[in-house]
């Protein structure tokens, strides 16, 4: 998407709750991000985020991975839905399927993900429990371009939060999630405006503004 396009068409892929999806949809609706939602797709029919998208008037779809014999046919259907929605960018927002190099390659430089840690620390699952176990004093979240390696790829932005005495997994997860909700729209905006170098040369550090 060139920076001269008035509004980029963004598809969002979810698997569950959809709170990051809501933060992106609301930022687009408020004009804070120069983009419009093209489609919300879930790989599970019972994702609570689907109703949140529908209530905002956003087209939704379900491509259930269990209904396909293999990953390739699942991804061919996802790609077809993205194309027919005329999506220009794809945001993974709590999408819990690992995508193959084929689909990643189709959207190279046009697919972002949010991950609940300061990458390259703690890729994968259970990031908050692992951060607590490691005794880190700073934790946070990362928005990055999706590459062939899981939770890898050029970093667009990061937000750090403190790990506080007495934190349990839920308390830490909530603090990180609040930061994700600020970070992801800011990074999407930076990307659309050409301020996020997808070759990875200039990672940008975003911290949510203090209240
Ligand atoms: C978010 O914390 C997101 O960073 C994480 O799942 C949660 C989804 O919440 N994603 C991953 O772990 C991807 N590997 P949400 O559905 O409310 O946005």
State mean pLDDT (0 to 100 scale): 92
Tell the overall outline: globular
The N- and C-terminal alpha carbons lie at a distance of 33 Å
Bound molecules: glycinamide ribonucleotide
Q: Rg to the nearest angstrom?
A: 16 Å
Number of strands: 8
Which residue ranges are poorly predicted, with pLDDT under 50 across at least 5 consecutive positions? none
Structural category: alpha/beta
- Number of helix segments? 6
User: Can you summarize the main beta sheet?
Assistant: 8 strands, mixed
Strand content: 15-25%
Describe the structure.
- The chain is α/β, with parallel strands linked by helices.
- The protein has six helices and eight strands.
- Helix 6 (169-192) links the parallel strand 7 and strand 8 (204-205).
- It is globular, with a radius of gyration of 16 Å.
- The structure holds glycinamide ribonucleotide (GAR).
- Glycinamide ribonucleotide (GAR) binds next to helix 1, strand 5 and helix 6.
What's the layout of helices and strands?
Blueprint: E1 8-14, H1 19-29, E2 35-42, H2 48-55, E3 60-62, H3 71-84, E4 89-92, H4 101-106, E5 111-115, H5 127-134, E6 138-145, E7 155-162, H6 169-192, E8 204-205
The structure holds glycinamide ribonucleotide.
Key features of this structure:
211 residues, alpha/beta, 8-stranded mixed sheet, 21% strand, globular, binds glycinamide ribonucleotide
């Amino acid at each position: 998407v060139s920076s001269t396009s008035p509004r980029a068409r963004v598809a969002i892929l979810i698997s569950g709750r959809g709170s990051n999806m809501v933060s992106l949809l609301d930022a687009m609706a408020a004009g804070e991000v120069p983009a419009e939602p093209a489609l919300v797709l879930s790989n599970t029919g019972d994702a609570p985020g689907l109703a949140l998208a529908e209530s905002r008037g956003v087209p939704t779809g379900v491509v259930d991975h269990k209904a396909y014999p293999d990953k390739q046919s699942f991804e061919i259907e996802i790609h077809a839905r993205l194309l027919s929605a005329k999506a220009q960018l794809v945001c993974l927002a709590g999408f819990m399927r690992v995508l193959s190099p084929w689909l990643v390659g189709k959207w190279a430089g046009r697919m972002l993900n949010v991950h609940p840690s300061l990458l390259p620390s703690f890729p994968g699952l259970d990031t908050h429990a692992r951060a607590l176990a490691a005794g880190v004093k700073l934790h946070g979240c990362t928005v990055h371009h999706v590459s062939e390696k899981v939770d890898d790829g050029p970093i667009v932005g990061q937000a750090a939060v403190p790990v506080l005495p007495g934190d349990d997994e839920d308390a830490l997860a909530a603090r990180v999630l609040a930061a994700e909700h600020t970070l992801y729209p800011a990074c999407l905006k930076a990307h659309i405006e050409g301020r996020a170098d997808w070759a990875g040369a200039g990672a940008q550090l975003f911290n949510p503004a203090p209240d």
